[in-house]
Design goal:
Elements (H helix, E strand, L loop, with lengths): L7 H13 L3 H16 L4 E5 L2 H14 L11 E3 L4 H11 L4 H9 L5 E5 L6 H12 L3 E6 L5 H5 L2 E4 L5 H24 L6 H4 L8 E3 L5 E3 L6
Helix pairs in contact: 2-8, 3-8, 4-5, 5-6
């Protein structure tokens, strides 16, 4: 009897990681822009299904808590984590609306919606992306291989080129950690200084600007 462990999964991951290294600049840009937006009082909303839901919640936990070193908390919500809202919406409006309706409730112009999907074809995530765009939000996506519907429906997408959903999810976890690192570096560089206004230290009604030049009202109700 052969008791040797099959290392094919590890081999697939190592090969996929080699290609994934090229995503570093995109993740770095996301981290810097997210620091600027959250620093101005905007919010990150994140959603996924199944294992991707766990990855999404991992990201929000790192931003509200901390990744490595101590820093101020930032506003990030995992939409699937509110089980009462999720199940009520699914029961009353259908599963396809579970994230779209929460996006409409919590999202505002200038916020970022990040969607995680190994297939890039989840109907409830596509509906959320559409709702976010109608609200003036920016949509980022972590998906599997391109092309896929979510890639086409997002403003910016990181497509993990891997043969299985399991390996895609592992790459998404790497992306989450790289994003948190890039975010923290941007905070250390002072790119989130707009938080002073979000805390109410700026003039009432003052307007900041996002990385893309769009104005956003600085919110004073966020800590």
């Amino acid at each position: 009897m052969n008791n040797a462990t099959d290392t094919g999964h590890c081999d697939d991951l190592m090969k996929a990681l080699e290609n994934f290294r090229g995503c570093g600049p995109l993740i770095g840009r996301w981290g810097a822009e997210l620091a600027r937006r959250l620093g101005l009082g905007s919010r990150l909303l994140v959603a996924g299904n199944g294992g991707s839901a766990a990855q999404a919640q991992h990201l929000t936990a790192e931003l509200v808590g901390r990744y490595r070193d101590d820093r101020p908390p930032f506003s990030a919500l995992a939409l699937h984590a509110d089980t009462s809202s999720t199940t009520a919406i699914a029961n009353d409006y259908g599963v396809q609306e579970v994230f779209a309706r929460q996006t409409a409730a919590h999202g505002r112009a200038g916020d970022v919606l990040m969607l995680l999907s190994t297939s890039g074809a989840s109907a409830n995530l596509l509906a959320a992306a559409d709702r976010a765009h109608r609200l003036g939000m920016t949509v980022w996506a972590l998906t599997g291989r391109a092309p896929n519907p979510l890639q086409l429906g997002a403003d910016d997408t990181l497509c993990a080129d891997a043969p299985t959903a399991a390996t895609v999810q592992e790459l998404h976890l790497v992306a989450v950690h790289m994003l948190c690192e890039a975010f923290d570096r941007a905070v250390e560089r002072g790119e989130a200084d707009g938080r002073a206004y979000a805390r109410g230290e700026g003039r009432p009604g003052e307007v900041g600007r996002l990385l893309d030049g769009r104005p956003v009202a600085l919110r004073r109700d966020r800590t």
